[in-house]
Amino acid sequence: MTGRERSAEWLKAGGLRPTRQRLALAELLIGDGMNRHVTAESLFALSADAGEKVSLATVYNTLRAFCEAGLMNEVVVDGSKSYFDTRTDDHPHFYWEDSHTLTDAPAEELEIAALPQVPEGMTVSRVDVVIRLRRAEQGAA
């Protein structure tokens, strides 16, 4: 299956019309079958490098549409920086403070024993676990 075909199927699975811009961005995200963590800015740069004429506003809008269609998840770090993850199952993340990147953390090593009781009339929709990493200081134990 080509990257373009994989992208068209992905959009179809989310019920999204395969416009030229959606197809181009989808191919950059999942065309090779690998999962990715991107910011709108990094996807915009990738699209420019690939010769695609897509505005940053279009990238933001398309990423939001992909999330609303259930094709991606948004992971917010520090309440201000959004990363978009093509892997949609529940899994934790490492946030690398020195490089400002987000990667998957091994889910099988995470144990959550309990969650707080949710307010009446509410249900848990998702639990995001972001483990922040920074280089250990030399000589620190």
UniProtKB/TrEMBL annotation:
Predominant place of localization: cytoplasm
Pfam families in UniProt: FUR
InterPro entries linked: FUR, WH-like_DNA-bd_sf, WH_DNA-bd_sf
Keyword Transcription: yes
Keywords of the record: Cytoplasm, DNA-binding, Iron, Metal-binding, Repressor, Transcription, Transcription regulation, Zinc
Transmembrane feature ranges: none
Compartment(s) where it occurs, according to its Swiss-Prot or TrEMBL record: Cytoplasm
Family: Belongs to the Fur family.
Quaternary structure annotation from Swiss-Prot or TrEMBL: Homodimer.
Name of the protein in question: Ferric uptake regulation protein
